[in-house]
Amino acid sequence: MSGLRRSGLFSGAWITALALALAWCVPGSAQNVLERGANPLEEPDFLPVDEAFVLTARVTDDGVLVADWRMPDGYYLYRHRFGFETRDGTTLGAPELPAGLPKTDEFFGDVEVFYGAATVRVPVLEAGGDPFEVGIDYQGCADYGLCYPPERKWLRFAAAGVGAGGGVGGGGGSGGSSGVPFADLVAILASALLGGLILNLMPCVFPVLSIKALSLLGAPEGRMRDATGFSAGVVATFVALGVVLVALKSAGEAVGWGFQLQSPGFVTAMAVLFFVLGLNLLGVLETPGFGVGGFDRAGPFATGMLAVVVATPCTVPFMGAAVGYGLAQPAPVLLAVMAALGVGMAAPYAVVAAVPPIARRLPRPGAWMATLKQVMAFPMFATVVWLVWVLTQQAGPGGAAWVLAAFVAVGFLAWLGMRRPARLRPVWLGVAGLAALSVWTVPAADRAAGAPAQRFDMQVVEAHQAAGRPVFLNFTASWCITCLTNEQSTLGTERVRGYFDRHDIAYVKGDWTNADPAITAVLARFGRSGVPLYVYFPPRGDPVVLPQVLTPGIVIDAIETAG
């Protein structure tokens, strides 16, 4: 057991060192993309217009021109200054502009503006040539006192397969302003890699990673194959998740990181699965592919898949900016971001298995592993308790009662198959059928019988601002471990609550446990793909985005700095 402790300390130190090294290597020029919460007053010089407002544009397969702008902190675009012109007979539809943030501007008065990112969609009804040209107008300012002149960019787009009144079939803008900036892409991929690495330190993945750790402590000759299978499962699942996100975005859905946990059926399936895995670790029911020391070929891959699924409730530094950036870009960029997250998450296990000096320091296999395996069952059961609690928030007491009844049925099936190999196949068929039935029969998301779910309304924040009252906005979810930790350790403490009371700061909470398009829209405005998101709206001035991991000092200092 002392060897195990040495190994844990060594691995933790190695992960920390690698995280610091990667953080050091993120290009300094890309920090404007990653660090949304920096203090804009620290910016000494004004950026050139093309660096202050980075424009990318493309035409989708269904004939929609998508123009996307990214801005560093302290810079914003006016909603009313967007325009689209043609000069070759091309016909455009009405632009689709999202709502902006209200602002009293010294140049235009009461307007709506965009900080961080802005995306405008314009239907292309008919192309006048191949390629065809579109002039994109926009204007923005800097909080430091500079208003840029109106800007117009003429971009060319391919018009393959266009008929009379038809749409544009694919294509992208030509010229330096239409592609994803290479420096930004490198920084975002490095951020995603680091975020994936940090995911290994989050409590949401500990139960599954304990299985992986036990497998690495097994027979030395199988470690490399085991780590390769696990890495392949992690990366493939992240990419598959990216494909789902792309498909949902193309269908017009507003989605973000952790979207699947907004489904009561998915939460039910995860609760049943973790209950079964806990029984497996106790030796009550042998689970194919999840043994210790006797992994079959599919086992490491399946463990990698499961690790990614349970990691989705967690949002870590660097990851939020990377996924948010990817969601605003074409599909290849989003898939590259997701793959980088997978590589970062799988890297420690691949390195431990592949580097002999590290592998030699691992504890030797022995009988102690059987005891450790059984101990690891209890974090699994703790995860089950948490998932049932989340389900109660989503589907009410009826949903929780159904899944608890499913646990009883799984226990009965486990008793039928315990130490009876001939019965395992029908037992597993029964468990799979029961899990599928639970997913379909858990009631639709409803917080309580007869009580409608409360939806977030940005007008609440705007009303407080109109009255001159500062607002602290907290976007959270019951399935978000980082959110719950911040609320217990920071936002719920007497120090922070007392500070809010003394300074008459309105505390507004938006719950994203169930899907809420209003919250998704606000997340997109601030360049985020999921919760947590913490924003302070001072009585005058621009909103301040706080880090994803909070302390009382961070919250109070951010408010004091913003005035």
> What sort of overall outline do the alpha carbons produce when their principal axes are compared?
globular
Q: Detail the poorly predicted runs.
A: 1-44, 161-179, 289-296, 444-452
How many β-strands, per DSSP? 15
What is the makeup of the main sheet?
4 strands, antiparallel
Please describe what this structure looks like.
The chain is an alpha+beta fold and 563 residues long. It has 3 domains: 50-157, Immunoglobulin-like (Sandwich), CATH 2.60.40; 182-441, no CATH class; 458-562, Glutaredoxin, CATH 3.40.30. It is built from 19 helices and 15 strands. The protein has helices spanning 2-25, 31-34, 49-52, 182-199, 206-216, 223-250, 264-282, 298-311, 319-327, 331-354, 356-360, 368-375, 377-417, 424-441, 458-466, 481-491, 494-502, 517-525, 552-562; strands at 54-59, 64-70, 75-78, 83-85, 91-92, 101-105, 109-115, 117-126, 132-138, 140-142, 151-157, 471-476, 506-511, 533-537, 544-545. The strands form 4 sheets. A 4-stranded antiparallel beta sheet has the order 1-2-8-5. Strands 6-7-3-10 form a 4-stranded antiparallel beta sheet, with no helix packed on it. It has a 4-stranded mixed beta sheet with strand order 13-12-14-15, sandwiched between helices. The chain is globular and about 75 Å long. The model is unreliable at 1-44, 161-179, 289-296 and 444-452 (pLDDT under 50).
Short note summarizing the structure:
The protein is of the alpha+beta class and 563 residues long. It folds into three domains: 50-157, Thiol:disulfide interchange protein DsbD, N-terminal domain (Immunoglobulin-like, Sandwich), CATH 2.60.40; 182-441, no CATH class; 458-562, Glutaredoxin, CATH 3.40.30.10. It has helices at residues 2-25, 31-34, 49-52, 182-199, 206-216, 223-250, 264-282, 298-311, 319-327, 331-354, 356-360, 368-375, 377-417, 424-441, 458-466, 481-491, 494-502, 517-525, 552-562, and strands at residues 54-59, 64-70, 75-78, 83-85, 91-92, 101-105, 109-115, 117-126, 132-138, 140-142, 151-157, 471-476, 506-511, 533-537, 544-545.
